[in-house]
């Protein structure tokens, strides 16, 4: 069991993408060598703290733009003096977009998250990413019964997440999605991963029913349960290690939780209408 935990944590700590690194000798051939293709290049420096923070957000772009007219590269700005001098690089990380003809379209200076970089690239190039199918199922008041409450024979993980919170802003490559894929394809024990996006107004009733006020908050519904069994709640230190430990039957700090069941969704929405802004946006 411990080896499974270590394997899953390794899976969730690394990116799926294989990012091609260029250098002084092949920069122009690779970056500008494909007719009709743009290139988005990440200039980094070893040991750079801000570079290390950027990389988990940048690397998913490789998979998302595979098969499109946009290429993704990185280059060590310190050791490749010719390219560093050519583009007058003074600080790292630096992100630049190039045309196939070698035109320097400009540097990206926005928020360094996957979703924000995608917005920039779409605006600048008109090229859209190719999102892979997700294993995690989005839950709303309309489908929570069939996706969570009626899955009595399955372990069900239900997370309430905010897409502006670090590690949760890219639903297609988050550790939660990768964990769901691993359990589906490798473990194959029927464990289900569900998610509620708290930024969507349609989910306000669920926030009230589950009494959620901080993000992420995780609920665990063990398999072979009865209708009236209480789920377990974890609203601190929600990461891959805690999720795996809960599924293994260990104590990750989860506690039993009583759901609001006497009110229907419409009544809950009315009662919490005035608190919606505070609940959803207090972390912004």
Automatic annotation (TrEMBL):
It comes from the Eukaryota. Residues 1-19 form the signal peptide. GO terms for molecular function: protein disulfide isomerase activity. The keyword Signal applies. Keywords: Signal. It comes from Ogataea parapolymorpha (strain ATCC 26012 / BCRC 20466 / JCM 22074 / NRRL Y-7560 / DL-1) (Yeast). Belongs to the protein disulfide isomerase family. PROSITE patterns: THIOREDOXIN_2. InterPro entries: PDI, Thioredoxin-like_sf, Thioredoxin_domain. Residues 8-126 form the Thioredoxin domain. PANTHER family: PROTEIN DISULFIDE-ISOMERASE C17H9.14C-RELATED, THIOREDOXIN DOMAIN-CONTAINING PROTEIN 5. GO terms for cellular component: endoplasmic reticulum. This is Thioredoxin domain-containing protein. One of its GO terms (biological process) is protein folding.
């Amino acid at each position: 069991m411990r080896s499974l935990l270590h394997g899953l944590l390794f899976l969730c700590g690394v990116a799926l993408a294989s990012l091609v690194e260029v250098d002084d000798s092949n920069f122009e051939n690779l970056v500008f060598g494909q007719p009709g293709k743009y290139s988005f290049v990440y200039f980094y420096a070893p040991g750079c703290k801000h570079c290390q923070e950027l990389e988990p957000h940048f690397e998913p772009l490789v998979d998302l733009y595979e098969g499109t007219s946009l290429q993704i590269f990185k280059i060590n700005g310190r050791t490749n003096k010719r390219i560093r001098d050519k583009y007058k690089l003074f600080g790292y990380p630096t992100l630049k977009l190039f045309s196939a003809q070698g035109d320097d379209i400009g540097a990206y200076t926005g928020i360094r998250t996957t979703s924000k970089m995608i917005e920039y690239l779409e605006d600048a190039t008109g090229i859209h990413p190719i999102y892979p199918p997700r294993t995690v199922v989005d839950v709303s008041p309309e489908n929570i019964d069939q996706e969570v409450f009626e899955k009595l024979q399955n372990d069900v993980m239900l997370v309430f997440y905010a897409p502006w919170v670090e590690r949760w802003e890219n639903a297609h490559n988050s550790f939660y999605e990768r964990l769901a894929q691993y359990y589906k394809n490798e473990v194959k024990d029927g464990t289900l991963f569900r998610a509620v996006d708290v930024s969507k107004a349609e989910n306000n009733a669920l926030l009230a029913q589950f009494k959620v006020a901080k993000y992420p908050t995780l609920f665990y519904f063990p398999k072979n349960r009865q209708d009236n069994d209480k789920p377990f709640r974890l609203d601190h230190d929600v990461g891959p290690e805690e999720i795996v430990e809960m599924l293994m039957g260990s104590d990750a700090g989860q506690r039993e939780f009583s759901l609001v069941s006497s009110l229907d969704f419409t009544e809950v929405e009315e009662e919490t209408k005035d608190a919606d802004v505070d609940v959803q946006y207090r972390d912004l």
